[in-house]
Design brief:
single chain; 72 residues; alpha+beta; 17% helix; DUF1659 domain-containing protein; DUF1659
Length: 72
């Protein structure tokens, strides 16, 4: 049976740079790699908000991306 092995965790902040002519938000992403895989959702949320408070752009969403390797 195949198994999954966690390879990498990434935290991505999506920031709003403005709006287009139709009123839809224009977005820009900033990614942070090598995130501790044992970090909880609450910890990641707190860190993301702390980083966002240092930005001039508004925080739109916070994403956590996990990469896995499939093996036997």
């Amino acid at each position: 049976m195949a198994q999954t092995y966690l390879q990498d965790v990434q935290l991505r902040l999506v920031l709003e740079t403005g709006v287009d002519s139709e009123g839809k938000p224009l977005l820009k992403g900033k990614s942070y790699n090598n995130i501790n895989s044992k970090a909880t959702a609450d910890q990641l949320f707190a860190v993301a908000n702390a980083i966002a408070s240092l930005q001039t752009l508004s925080l739109h969403t916070i994403e956590k991306n996990d990469s896995f390797i499939l093996g036997a």
